Amino acid sequence: MKISLNWIKQYVALDGVSTAELEHAFTFLGFEVEGVVSTALPPLTNVVVGAIRTRTKHPNADKLSVCTVDVGPAHGGVRTIVCGAHNCDAGNFVPVALPGAVLPGDFKIKQSKIRGQTSDGMLCSPDELGLGGEHAGLLLLSGQPTLGQPINETLHGGDTVFDLEITPNRPDALSQMGLARELAAWFRQPVAFPEIKFHNQTHGERPDILAGIRVESPEDCPLYVGIAVAGVKVGPSPAWMQERLTAVGLRPINNLVDVGNYVMLELGQPLHVFDAKKIGGRQIVVRRAADGEKLTTLDGKERQLNRRMLVIADEAKPLVIAGLMGGASAEVDAGTTDIVLEAAYFRPQSIRWTSRRLGLTSDSAYRFERGVDPHGTLEAARRAIDLILATAGGTVVGPSFQVGGDRPWQREIKVTPAFIRARFGFDVSDDAIRDALRALNLAIVGESETATGPEWTVDIPSYRGDLDRPIDLVEEVLRIHGTDKVPPAPCAGPALVDGDDDPIAVFNRRATDYLVGQSFHEVVNYTLRSQQELSTWVSAASAEELALANPFVDDQSHLRPTLVLGLMDSLKLNQSRGNAVARLCETGRVFMEHNGTVQECVGVAFLICENEKDRAWLPRAQPDFYTVKRHMEILAGAAGLTLAAQELKPVTGAFWGWQPGQSATAGELTAGWTARFGLLNPAMVRAAGVEGRVWAGMLAILPEKLTAAGGHRRYQPFSLMPAALRDLALVVEAARHAGEVRQQLLAVARTAAGTAFAVESVEVFDVYTGAGLPAGKKSLAFALSFRSQERTLTDDEVNTVFQRIQKDIAADGTMAVRA
Amino acid sequence: MQDLLTALLAKAPAELAALTTRADFEAAKARYVGPNGELTALMKQMGAVPKEQRPAMGKLINEAKAQLQAQLDATLARIGDAEIAAQLGPAVDPSLPSPDAGPGTWHPLTLVREEMCRILRKAGFTVVEGPEVETEYYCFDALNTPADHPARDAHDTFYFPERARFAGVTKKDPEEKYLLRTHTSSVQIRSMLKGPPPLRVVSPGRVYRRDTSDATHSANFHQIECLYVDKHVTVRDLKALLDYIFASLLGQDTKTRFRPHYFSYTEPSFEVDLSAKHLPKVNKAWIEIGGCGIVDPGVFEAVGYDPEVWTGYAFGMGLERLAMLLYGIDDIRYFYQNDVRFLKQFA
Q1: Dihedral of the alpha carbons of B219, B222, B228, B229, in degrees to the nearest 10
Q2: Domain assignment present for A356
Q3: Pair A150, A281 in one domain
Q4: Residue A323 pLDDT > 70, yes or no?
Q5: Measured between CA atoms, how close is A157 to chain B, in angstroms?
Q6: Residue A746 is part of which domain span?
Q7: Of A28, A77, A626, B251, whose CB count within 10 A is highest?
Q8: Which residue of A has its CA nearest to B101?
């Protein structure tokens, strides 16, 4: 929203207020200043008109001149001033900054010596005076200005335009008058409203111009006024109006259109001017559009309407999308002689819905959808008629049409100063609060005594629809008091707050800390990925469930189902930049589809790149599946899961990012979590532009599963007796998983030991294939550890059990004891 | 016999000195003091020595035995030392680099987030989390921003198709759409719905805006947001918290100020500026760092807190913006490129 200082000065006295003070005022009233453009001189003292009498070259500097300048008898007559500008020629009238002047940028002028030559002031260029622009020589004053006259008197005119951010709660500030009111409150100045002369006087009945107005949808349009003016003359609007419109960024069109825009910008009420001849049947109908009805708007686009949209129509066709934009067919043109001025109040929700549906907005819609002053419509119409008569001539003719009433407005808020102080948390006197309310035109119309002091009844003006509750007045008083005046205080000590950090935060912290401790670099990647990338990791049906309805760019259209995608990006970027990097990790949300429902999971993933090009003076064992498995076990542990207790299965299905035979999966999302880890498909890795073999692991877990983890541990007594150890090698099918064999051996051993003593552990310590074994078989060697809680085990009792184990294994048929 | 002893003692040193392995040593030891050893054999002859000579002879044998044992012990120690020396190998070159991976690094966003959480924990705030896919209710409606409210325009929101189904996030109204949360304020609502006040929580997390990516904007970024609900919470308390946070994070000479602003879920609402001239790349006197305010009574009504009894404040800011300020980073995209030369700078 652009505000012209010249314009608002019509309504509030701001003489002597600097641009910086206005900027500060706007900022602390809550209107962020996004830009200031000034074409006016700031108030300057000791800068006066002078005439250059002589110019000679500076004796000690090629580019400087020594001038004698007459600044009038009041300022000591002729002075000697050194000048570097190219145009300091004798005879020119120029601004002269005398010693004691302070130019913009806090540039203080004093008598000085420049290369040995005394200079008694400075001749000024436009930028030195704060007029902007490039430094291109002295500002030459035209005509015969009075010598010694203050420069502000010589160079008046110009304007300062502020570009302000108006928050959505303040539609009343979407006008010059609205912001004048705010400045008036800040500087405690009265507001002067433009005088309105038109009071519905008509000169004769002209039903041939406007025969009637019918509002068929009063809920969308509670008030509609049409005023006919006969005999207008279309032409350019007056210079002062054009200047103001131009200053705030509008292009002048013609006097009638400009008046509409001018009053909208002045008072915040959008208006519309129809060429009466183009209203078919001389009848205005405010109605809902029919589904499929079409209207070509002023911007030349054909708009498809529907039955929720409000239009202003004549008997035959829609003319305007109500409150939004006019149609090309009913506009004022050079041949217009009779017009109808529309002033209406449209329901904000209706305008907003239509605007969003059509993807069309306008200055008018912007105001209507935020809410115009429901009490200001008629006044704005009268103001516009005054300006039309003044700029385009014509006479107002009857009959007058007003459908709906001026919407009644009365709103009062009861508030106590004690309540306001309690919300502030610091002391402000009743008088100061009263003063702030009065400054904002929030009149205290009643006062009663309560236990906590007086209670005031505050009358809310119709343009402040945002004020509805006592808390809203707290903000108003604080704005005027100054939000930068909140006094400091020590931060209060914590109340007893029940609770600990969310398990998600705790898990992310533990997982990241572990991986960083294992030399991983933590990375952060985007959540949104392309559909094409997803095909590596999930089925097409899954990908569809992860799609956004309204992506902004094509390559960020889907939720990520795995963090590996981003990790690969980071790896690729580092490789392409020649950074040696092998280990990356990330935590973050991932999204997994199951039976048409998407689950948002807490995720952690890492990758280890094994690149042959990475050289080391001392070779190390390369990472492998079991390196990854160990990290996964520890990460699962951080989530309260025991990966070792899980059955590991080959990765199947659409997840061809994982290399079959070199990867595994555990857990099910239906049980709350899933883990996948191993070697990434080398073909996929190469296609992704990454060099080397890449090992990776990912864990996804539902938040509620993390919440359920934890709990108190109890101490378990452990035996202080020595363990008895036996080794046993078993020959099994080469394809059988060691874990399964181990489980079977453990079960057999426990059965054999019975209650006599415990089988403490069964662990594989050797895997062998080759000479001495039948083809297709492998040998798995296990270390068994037995221990009693109470006594040292004898060889005999252990041997008895060990023999029974061997016998039972042999009887199983799927495995044999290796001789 | 005495001669035999003398001869034995005479040859032993040279023989033992020649030994280099533990096995040779054991064999040599057996040859002297083993059951069939030469000294053992001499001792066995003691029975044949005349009775009157036995004490003298016994003494001689014991002396010889002690002497021999000392030589054996020394030999074993020498061989042991040699073995260790052989195991150790040559001296290392301590100036060579370790071939193992260097230190890992936390991402700067993690570092800033954890630092903020640490500072806030001292003020009694605990971390809460919520889903990134939200419903319109939690993201807007419950935050006093109904569907037809212009404040929703300020948020360019990513939505999901009507058919989309998300587990764990229940729609209040079948008509409402799933979306990617535009702010972490939705977590405030979820926290308040979980239990009665008082409440002091901080919610860091990822948020999304449907906006062009450039040096200062990113399709997803991170916020950190505080909510405090109690009796008699004031604007001054809010200012005190912010002063505390930024003095802790950026140094004691950091100042904050409030500017009036509008957020639908706070009233009054402020934007927070801070001034910290010692920071790199902070040229302007005041820079905007976040938004805050006193919790709007409408929000308390939405979560079933009595607005006549409870008051509160909320404060939120962008983590990227804070990290950029703290570290003097000039492009938000560096956070998402993950160049290790960048990542290593903050460890």
Answers
A1: 40
A2: yes
A3: no
A4: yes
A5: 31
A6: 724-817
A7: A28
A8: A519
Q: Rounded mean pLDDT of B172-189? A: 92
**Which amino acid does the sequence have at A605?**
A
Among A736-740, B182-186, B243-247, the minimum mean pLDDT is found in: A736-740
3-class SS shares of chain B: helix, strand, coil, % to 5: 45, 20, 35
Q: Give one DSSP letter per residue of A664-727, joined into a string.
A: EEE--GGGTEEEEEEEE-HHHHHHTT--SEEEEEEEEE-HHHHHH------------SPPEEEE
Cβ-proximal residues to B124 (8 Å cutoff; 6+ apart), any chain = A493, A494, A495, A497, B200
Return the higher-pLDDT residue of A134 and A36: A36
Q: Which two tokens stand for residue B116?
A: 């903020």
How near does any CA of chain B get to the CA of A475, in Å? 5
For chain B, domain boundaries: 2-88, 108-346
pLDDT value for A712: 77
Phi, psi of A761 (to 5 degrees): -155, 155
Q: Are A759 and A786 in contact (CB under 8 A)?
A: yes
CA distance A615 to chain B (A): 9
Interchain proximity B126–A547, CB inside 8 Å: no
Which of B128, B180, B258 lies nearest to residue A484, judging by beta carbons? Answer: B258
Same-domain pairing of A417 and A533: no
Specify the CATH number for the domain of residue A759: 3.30.70.380
Q: Which residue has the higher pLDDT, A383 or A40?
A: A383
Q: What is the DSSP letter of A771?
A: T
- pLDDT tier for residue B211 given thresholds of 50, 70 and 90: confident
The answer to whether the beta carbons of residues A445 and A459 sit under 8 Å apart is yes
For residue B198, say if its preceding peptide bond is cis, omega within 30 degrees of 0.
Answer: yes
**Residue A441 pLDDT exceeds 80:** yes
Confidence of residue A127 (pLDDT cuts 50, 70, 90): confident
Percent of chain A with pLDDT over 90: 70
Residue range A415-429: mean pLDDT, rounded? 96
> B-chain residues within 8 Å CB-CB of A560?
none
CATH number 3.30.9.10 is the correct assignment for the domain at B108-346 = no
- Mean pLDDT over residues B231-239, rounded? 95
Helix intervals (H) in B195-274: 235-250
Average pLDDT over residues A411-439: 96
- Same domain for A134 and A260, yes or no, is no
A488 touches chain B (CB under 8 A): yes
How much of chain B exceeds pLDDT 90, in percent? Answer: 58
B41 Cβ under 8 Å from any chain A Cβ:
no
Q: How many CA atoms lie within 13 A of A72 on its CB side?
A: 18
User: Which chain A residues are within 8 Å of B154, Cβ to Cβ?
Assistant: 168
Cα B160 to the chain's mean position, in Å? 35
Tell whether A698 and A605 lie within a shared domain.
yes
Tell me, yes or no, whether A665 and A685 share the same domain.
Answer: yes
Whether residue A122 is found in the same domain as residue A260: no
What residues of B are in contact with residue A551 (Cβ under 8 Å)? 158
- Answer yes or no: is pLDDT of A357 > 60: yes
A412 bridge partner residues: A459
pLDDT at position A407, please?
64
Q: Using the beta-carbon criterion (under 8 Å), do B261 and A29 form an inter-chain contact? A: no
Q: Which of B104, B102, B337 is nearest to A606 (CA)?
A: B104
Q: Examine the domain organization and report whether A350 and A274 are in the same domain.
A: yes
B90 to chain A, any CB pair closer than 8 A? The answer is no
Please check whether residue A664 is in contact with residue A677, taking contact to mean a CB–CB distance below 8 angstroms.
yes
Q: Are B230 and A495 inside 8 Å of each other by CB?
A: yes
Identify whether residues A21 and A168 lie together within a single domain.
Answer: yes
- The label of the residue with tokens 């500076």 reads A58
Residue B255 has pLDDT above 80, yes or no: yes
Question: What integer best gives the mean pLDDT of chain B?
Answer: 90
Do the Cβ atoms of B126 and A500 come within 8 Å? yes
Tell me the two tokens of residue A230.
């006969």
Three-class DSSP category at A275: strand
